[in-house]
């Protein structure tokens, strides 16, 4: 259970970095980060909706 919490925290941080990379136009790096996110989601059995992605971005990134 603790491991799942840590994995979710790492995944959420990757979502924030994905948003930064996207804004910077670093597409290749964003693709690699996204692959890591997908792997973690699969391990956790999680599916993240676009609304949840937006919430994560606002949680980690100031406007």
Describe this structure in words.
By secondary structure, the protein is mainly alpha-helical. The chain is 83% helix and 0% strand. α1 runs antiparallel to α2 and α1 packs across α3. The longest helix is centred in the first third of the chain and has 23 residues. The protein starts with a helix and ends with a helix.
List keywords for this structure.
mainly alpha; globular; 3 helices; 63 residues
Major sheet attributes: none
Average predicted confidence as pLDDT: 85
Give the overall form: globular
* Low confidence ranges: none
Would you list the SSEs in sequence order as H and E?
HHH
Rg over alpha carbons:
12 Å
**Could you tell me the strand content as a percent range?**
under 5%
Q: How many distinct domains? A: 1
The structure class reads: mainly alpha
**How many helix segments?**
3
- Quaternary arrangement of the chains shown? single chain
Provide the helix percentage.
Answer: over 70%
The tally of beta strands, per DSSP, is 0
**What is the terminal separation in angstroms?**
33 Å
